[in-house]
Amino acid sequence: MKRMPLIAGNWKMFKTVPEAVETATRLADACREIQNVEIMIAPAFVTLPLVAEAVKNTRVHLGAQNLYFEPEGAFTGEISADMLSTAGAEYVIIGHSERRHYFFETDEMICKKIKAAVTGGLKPILCIGETESLREQGKTFLTLDKQVSDGLQGLGPDEIKDLVLAYEPVWAIGTGKSADAAQVEEAHQYLRSLLEKQFSLDLAKTIRILYGGSVKPENINELMRITDVDGALVGGASLDVHTFTKIIKFDTQL
Ligand code: 13P
Question: Where in the sequence is the domain holding 59, given as residue range(s)?
């Protein structure tokens, strides 16, 4: 089963509206000829409608970085799945480690967010990954197991068919220190086996599992050679068009 690679840029809290529009326009232009790789950027909420306009009819897909699980209501400062999809988002990143750490998101909340995304027609990208201390304690698999089973609790096969998993070891995010190939291979294989256990082998084979954490042009080829790596969720290196394009074009370098 061939899975379409997805190279996704998480712009986090970077780029103003004009900067985001300018970068997205240049990225779409740089990626005109690219085939066989899906490209996605997740800029800040306020930029979505204009960035959507800038990447319309191009190879660049659009995502958001978070959402709230209620459909609407008195939740000052929050944003719903419908608001995101009508602003042009197709994907939504859920449960990023920065959300878990700084905004105290639990697996239970994350599960509600995944359900809200699916109900609202958005494709969820569920982020999971262990901290350095959990890895040192030998609890990497235990952590992944809990994050996947609790995060996807109660979801049926139909609801997860567009799901993307992103394995982002917390110690590799923004540190310049990517996980090595053996660590990534082991984690991704384990994640696919969890999906098989929780859903089915057929479904597990179709779900894309991205790696995230200090991905750059220098390590993308090695990462993409790993069987169960179906793409990358890129932070810092996605902010610059030239650098991000090099990552997107990994296949031409293989
Ligand atoms: P860096 O690529 O900057 O390490 O960030 C990874 C990340 O958090 C993507 O969601």
Answer: 6-248
